[in-house]
Every structure is written in C-alpha cells, then in structure tokens.
Amino acid sequence: MADTNSHISRRSYIKLAGGAAASAALAGCSGGGGEETETTETTTTGGEETETTETTTTEDSGSFDVTITQGQMPSGLDPHDHRETTTDIVVLHAYEGVLTRDAAGSIQTALATNYERIDGENAVRFELREGVTFHNGDELTPEDVAYSINRVVDEEVGFASPQSDQLAGVAGAEVIEGENAVKVNNSSLNPIVFSEFATYLDVMQQSWVEDNDKAYIGQNMNGTGPFQLDSYTEDEEVVLTAYEDYWQDTAAVDTLTFRAASEASTRVNQLLQGETDLIVNVPPQEVQRVTNSDNARVAAAPSTRIIYNAMRYDVEPFDSMEFRQAMNYAIDLESIVQNVLGGFGAQTSQPTLPEFVGHNADLDPYPHDPDQAEQLVEDSGYAGAEIELHTPVGRYLKDLEIAQAVAGYIDELPNVTATVRQRDFGSLVDELLAGSIEARPPWFLIGWGEATFDGGLVMEALLASEGTLTTWQNEEFDALLEQAGNQSGEEREATLQEANAMAHEQCPWIFLNQQYSVYGVSNAIAWEARSDERIDAYAMSQQ
Between the CA of residue 75 and those of 37, 81, 267, 428, 463, what are the distances in Å? Predict the structure, then answer.
C-alpha cells in the first residue's frame, strides 16, 4: 500500500508549541545510559526488501525500572478482546504479530521472516521465525499463528472478537503442511492485507487459550513479546518484567509498570514529583510547566487518531441530515483547536485524515455559521430539540473540554438546547461495543486511531452499516466501501475519496480534530513519541 511509509508532517510541532517546547519535544535521543550496536537484517519479500534493525543496548549496572501513567487502565489482558488503544499499549509489550511497524510506520518483519502473495490465489503466505518461545517456555508453532488469526475472524473458533473488522477481508488461516508457514485466505483481493497484519493480530498460544477460561485469559498473559506479566491488579496496576529468553535482545527496561490517572493535572504532578516516568495527554496549559521543570520534558507527535461526535441516524433529531449539518455549522472548530487544544490538533472535514489513503483534499472543514445552523434546524423540523452529549473524561486530550465547547456553541443557538454528560470510559465503550446501534448513546464523543493509515478501514469500522461502532446506515455508502475492497491503487483511492465526500455532505458526525499525542517524559529516559500512539518500552534506554 502506497502510504504505509507516510510521515505526518503537515504541521510541525515547532510551529505549534514554540521554540522552547519544540526543543523539549525533539529531545530524547539515545543518551549516556549505555552503548548501542545496530544489526540490520534484509529480507526479500515477493521482490521487495524489508529491513529489520535490531538494537543491542549495553546498560550500566543497576535496575532500570519505568512507570507509565495513562488516562485509563486496560479493560483486560486478552489481546483479542478489546478495542482501546490504552489496552493495546499494555498488551503489545507481551504479545506480538507476524509483522509490525517501525516508528516511521514502515512494515517490518516480526514473528514472520518472510511474507508474500501466493500467485493465482486470494491468499498470502507467512514464513515463521524459528526458535521463538512463549513466556511459559513452549515454542511458537504455525498452529498457534493460524489459530490466533481464526480466533479473531471466525466466531466459531472461540468468541465474537471485537477486532474482526481490523482484519477486514481475511477469511481464515491454515498451516501449510511440511513448512514452518501459514497460509491466510482472503475473501477477495484484499489490497491492504499486509498493512493490516503489520498493525493488528497478536499471536497467542492455542493450547494455553483452549486450556483456560475467558476470565483467566483476561487477567493473565502468555505471549512471545519482550515483557512478561509479573502481576495484574484490575483497574489499578499492571507490572511486567523483561523476558530473558526473548528472541531478540533482552529489553533494557527491567520492570515496566502501568498505572492510570484520569485527571491530567494529577498525571503532570506525578511526573514532576518523580512518581512516574511517562504520562499521556499533557494539556496545553501544562506544557510550559513540564518544559521548565528540571526532571522532565514534553514529547509530541501528530497521531493517527480522529476525534468526532457521532450522531445516531435512527433517533430524533439526528435522523435529519439538515439537523446534523446544523450541528457542524454551529461549532467554531478553528477556535476549539486553537483555544481548547492550544494548537495541538488539526481541523477535520471527513472521516479520513490527510495522511491516510483515500483522503479527499477538496473537502474543507465546516465553517462557523450559527445563522446557517439555526436555519437548518428550522428546516429539519426539530426546533426546540434538547440533546445530551456523552463524553469520556481523561481518555483523550482535553476530551471533556472539547465536549463542553461543542455543547456550548450548540446551546447558543436559539432553537436547540445542548448539555454534556460525563461518562466513565469503560462503561461508554461497553455500550459502543454492545453490537447494535440501539445500544449506543444518541450523541457521543469518541476517538478512533487507525495505525494502518488507511481510510477504508476507518470508514468500515465507524460508518458502514455493519461497522463495529457505526451510528449510520446508507446503502450507497456501503456500496462504495464494498467497491473499494475489490480495488487497488488509484482506483481504490478515488472510490474512498468519493465515500469521504458523501460522509462530509451527510454529516453522520460532527467533524472535530485530529489528535496530537503530547507526552510528559522523565529526563532519565531516552524515548521518542510515535505517530501511531504506541508507547514502546522496548525502545527505551537510560539517559
């Protein structure tokens, strides 16, 4: 896929944060904590070469322990039974996929050493790495990989995984007899199959999953990754330790602890007091405080996450396109980005971000036009509507403040009353993943990160009639997505651009912002922010 190597460069952190904060964000290269040696392995893949670079770090004596504080704790430890980035960030330290991505977004080999399309078939082949062990000491087998894929895409294998659409187009997997390899069957051409596997699908041990019940799997871990589970206290703490028999070099970090604090100010205070080493979503008003401290810095990167307000098409007043359009005209999105987010964001006009395949550059964000909004509300027949915006608190950068600003602008209209309802993120996600539109709130704020850089996957999950989080059904839109699924290259790009134009006009969402990931980082750690929001402790070293 052409855009898998994209860097997000449209807005530089220097322009947004000013010179002092920019210097802090760019800090964090490998420091004096040890010496590094790089070894590069080149793998030929169906005529293309993929480089895997392994870094060996020799650390000074003494334990290197790191604590990471997110806005939310993971919902569980089963890598196939969640849809939250906060959970992903934890489990990806213990579980791995056949492919992965480097910090720049390029596809890299992981548990597979080679991958290729099989000529004449809608199938691909993954050749697996030898000598990889799970944390219980058992060796990785092709059966484990095939089972993991089927556990996600086939309900009959285990359960209805909420991640099935992340492997859109994948019909199932099977072991190739006599080889240390797996064949993955696709329902069609599946032009993004390698991009999907580079971002999703954590490999689990078949026998371990089948020998344990769902509750046990959700509270324990047995992966092949660089860290293994030491202890898990639900909703409080996850403690991991370096896995000594990891197939690459042992991690420099000895003990990795994950905690959560929903309040940004609490996270900042913990960082500056030395109680944690890395925090997420530093609010704009706290950036200078972190930058001016003696023991921490700010690191930032534009992310692959879009923040939006979904509106259920099947309930009043959101069943009216005119009303939904009015909601977009009512808000001052430029002001929200500049004043609420402090410039740490970008306005959006469609479901697909500019760096993604399928983005339509001809679409502009809705302008702030309260008169037009008022008239469209009258045209919709819903003058006098009272609406309530459900929002998480502390999950996304300034999520509550964004929701309050949106509701405030709409409430200023003379013919609509809007309020905000604060929600626990976990309970909100439970409603969103309940499996039906009817179970979801009529109007809610949520974010969606798509690390494949593919607009088709975003729209399939969030707007297709059978999408995981959809609040909209439109047969013409579904047909465009189905058409794109059987195309590649420029043809597919054009079809996705058409789908984005339809979504822009129909307004199933209030289009909000592209989120920027803004972290606070201890000066004792060498680490750089990634655009895919992954916090990779295996890449950390001591300063």
Answer: 37, 9, 20, 12, 24
